[in-house]
Please model this.
Amino acid sequence: MATHRTKMLIIGSGPAGYSAAIYGARAMMEPIVVQGLQPGGQLTITTDVENYPGFADVIQGPWLMEQMQKQAEHVGTRMMWDTIVDVDVAGGSPVKAVGDSGDEYIADVLVIATGAQAKWLGVPGEMELGGKGVSACATCDGFFYRGKKVAVIGGGNTAVEEALYLTNHSDDVTLIHRRDELRAEKILQERLLNHPKISVIWNKTVESFEAGPNGALHHLNLRDTVTGDASTLDADGAFVAIGHAPATELFKGKLPMDESGYLLTEPGSPKTEVPGVFAAGDVTDHVYRQAVTAAGMGCMAALDAERFLAHLEIDADGHAHAAKEAVAG
Model:
C-alpha cells in the first residue's frame, strides 16, 4: 500500500484517458493513469478500425490503443495497473481515490474516462464471433458489410438508428425485436417502417449466433416469444443494439448523472459540477460514442484541467491547494 500524489489523476485508459494523459503530460501535470480492468477500453475488443483519422490503411483497435499508451508514457505519463474502488470528490480539489491494491491516489484534478460498455445478449456465439460478424456498433463496422445481408437486434432508438444507418451500405437490413412494437421515437419508427431496404421480424429473440465453414457469422438462431417456435436468419453481419451502460457505478451519489447513468457536464465542456473534476468520452457521451470524439473530449478535459490548476495556489512543496475566491471569480 502506497500513496501516490499527482497534479492530474486519470481514471480509465481508452482514447479519452490516453488523450487527456498526452495533453496533461505535455503541460507538465505529471499525470497518473489508473488503467482499470480493461486497459485500452472498447477498442481492445475491436478488430478493424477504418474511421480513425490519420491512417490510410485499416488498423487494429488493440494496436491503436497500444500506440496511444506508448505515446502517453513517452511524454511523461505514469501508468498504474490498478482499479479504483472508491473516490472522494466531495470537497473538490484535491480529490482522493483508493485502488483495489489498497494504494491511495491524491490529485489536484481528476479526469474520469471510465467509458461505457455495450450491453450484450449473453447468448452462445456472441463473444466468439465478435469482429467476425457480430458487432455492437454499426457506425464503426457497418462499412465492412457493403452489399451484404445484415441484422440489427433491438427495438429502441439505438437499434432503429443503427438499422437506418446500415442502409447506406446494405440493401438487405433486418431488424429483430422481441416485442410486437418498437420503443423508439415515433419519427424514427416511421422512417424505419417505411424504408424499402429494411424489414422487421417481430416477437423474436436471438438464441445464438452460428458460424459458417469460414469461421465467420453465417446465421442467427431465433425463438418466437409468443409461440416458442424456432427459426433461423441468414446474415453476414449482426449488430446488437440494446443500449450501452456507462461505467459510473463508482460515482453514484457523488456526481450528477442522467437517468441512464451518464455523467452530466456543462454543455460543450467536460466540466462536472465539482471544480477540478472532469468527465470525458463515453462516460458522458451517449450520442456519438466514437474513438475520435472520446479522444477530443480527453484533450478538452486536459486543457480545462490546466486552466483550473492556474487558479490554484501552489505551496512550498509544489502541491496545489484551491484558492476558492480565485476559482469562484
Observations:
- The mean pLDDT is 91.
- The longest strand covers residues 3-11.
- The two ends are 39 Å apart (CA to CA).
